[in-house]
Amino acid sequence: MIVQRPLNVVIVGGGTAGWMAAAAFTAALKPEQRRVRLIESSEIGTVGVGEATLPHLRMFNRRIGIDERDLMAKTQATFKLGIEFVDWARVGDSYIHPFGAYGSRMAGVPFHQYWLRQKKQGQAAPLEAYSLPIVAARQGKFALPVDDPASLLSTFGYAFQFDASLYASYLRGFAEQRGVQRIEGKVIDVQLRGTDGWIESLKLENGTVVAGDLFIDCSGFRGLLIEQALHTGYEEWTRWLPCDRAVAVPSRNVGPLTPYTRATAREAGWQWRIPLQHRTGNGYVYSSNFISDDAAAEKLLSRLDGEALGTPRFLRFVAGRRRKTWNKNCVAVGLAGGFLEPLESTSIYLIQIAITTLIDYLADSARFDPRIVDAYNRWIDMEYDRVRDFLILHYHANQRDDAPIWNYCRTMAVPDSLAQRMELFRHRGRVITYKDGLFLEASWLAVYLGQRVIPVGYDLLADALNATELERRTRSLREQIEQAVARMPTHEQFLGNYCPAKLA
Ligand SMILES: Cc1cc2nc3c(=O)[nH]c(=O)nc-3n(C[C@H](O)[C@H](O)[C@H](O)COP(=O)(O)OP(=O)(O)OC[C@H]3O[C@@H](n4cnc5c(N)ncnc54)[C@H](O)[C@@H]3O)c2cc1C
């Protein structure tokens, strides 16, 4: 990394975002290249939810040098092979969005095109049967993927379900050991430079003044620096993502720990269920236009698998993102930068991308070059926009008419970017994939088909294989997946051997 003089980084906030930023900066820059301080107020506290992740987090951990097994044991983590969506397109439906592919290309044609062809001819097995992570998830099995591309066990990835507060504490230990200075205190004033309005320093309640070059705003929904001081503005997306509240409560574990997160559509939103080693995380994400807080809490409590541990906690949010997440010498990361509901567990991913992209861009040229700042903002906007479209798909493509929220979402106008993608898929099953960012082909496929968006045709190149050969290959693939899963240990057996929980 090219660094001209030590970079004086001040992070405000000690939630998941703040400590991920602190850990990443200390890992990326040598001690003589940086001074990193993190200010947090235990009086204010953190949002305290955020338990389901995406496989990308493993790359972040690896990049900064975290031992995954140790981390899992110390954060009560379980493995996650995907997300089960229950009752989304119609009441009674269930599908899993897996972390892995369905089959593999044959003669250069995506596997799902052959499946669509068989489906048109009434000969298709369920698509799930061609996804190893789904078959394993449904049977409560888990094993680590392998590197050998010839093995079926290389066709999937995994993420964690963990206690996000323990993850933040873990990163705190990691970052402090590497020289990050933690400052306990409440920021009460932000001093801006007279000439250009850049942030000069922060004033704490006890009178301390903290100056810096780069300020990372990880202060949560309040956006203390990016919004309250710099008035950057917020682009709101509630017209497409109407949920604006959540109520959360943990419960006692009942039954085997599932290696997946569950999202069940409800009368005014949806309910999450995330099994950790010591408890299950639950929450109801809802729209205040369609249900009251009291009713939402009552519904949540009546639908837990096990006894509630504690009283329900309410959270409020507005779907959207800052107009710029990098403004002047301030970069907003985490909830300060924007919020998209946790339906696809994307918030920690967006934190990770914000931090790693920032570090890469800072290294790339003179710091704070406006061209770099613009490029960074475009990149982060793109990441948010893509997640937004994917989330909207879940709501929009529904066939439920049992509750006003579902009628609203089914009939609302969606962003053009999503409408065009859906149109292409409906025509011949074409999935537009991106070179960068979320999500891959299998993810879109899982959600399109799970939400009953069924193409009218298929790619005619999938006619290349004759029917007998196609049937032979697809049956063989299903059998191989069944056999591979049969050899896997249960998720609990695997956890017990690999990363049984221990106190930090
Ligand atoms: C209902 C819900 C469910 C979620 N589920 C998931 C999930 O399953 N997966 C996922 O990836 N994400 C999820 N998230 C998002 C996830 O919780 C957050 O992205 C993550 O916790 C990061 O939060 P944060 O660090 O940005 O903010 P916070 O946790 O709110 O931390 C803010 C920090 O700023 C400090 N602070 C604020 N003001 C001041 C001040 N004046 N002076 C000093 N310090 C200050 C606070 O003390 C605190 O340390 C969920 C969010 C919600 C709302």
Query: Whole-number radius of gyration?
Result: 23 Å
Helicity range of the residues? 25-40%
The N- and C-terminal alpha carbons lie at a distance of 33 Å
Structure summary, number of beta strands: 21
Overall 3D form: globular
The SS-based structural class is alpha+beta
Main sheet strand line-up: 5-4-14-15-16-13-17
Strand fraction: 15-25%
Topology diagram in text:
Elements: E1 7-12, H1 16-28, E2 34-40, H2 56-64, H3 68-74, E3 78-80, E4 82-86, E5 94-98, H4 111-120, H5 132-138, E6 159-161, H6 164-177, E7 181-184, E8 187-192, E9 199-204, E10 209-211, E11 214-217, H7 224-229, E12 234-236, E13 245-251, E14 261-266, E15 269-275, E16 280-286, H8 293-302, E17 313-316, E18 320-322, E19 326-327, E20 330-332, E21 338-339, H9 347-364, H10 370-396, H11 404-411, H12 416-428, H13 441-450, H14 467-486, H15 491-498
Parallel strand pairs: 1-2, 1-11, 2-7, 4-14, 11-20
Antiparallel strand pairs: 3-6, 4-5, 8-9, 9-10, 12-18, 13-16, 13-17, 14-15, 15-16, 18-21, 19-20
The structure holds flavin-adenine dinucleotide.
Flavin-adenine dinucleotide binds at residues 12-18, 39-41, 44-47, 49-53, 164, 186-187, 218-220, 222, 224, 246, 248, 283, 315, 317, 334-336, 342, 345, 347-348, 351.
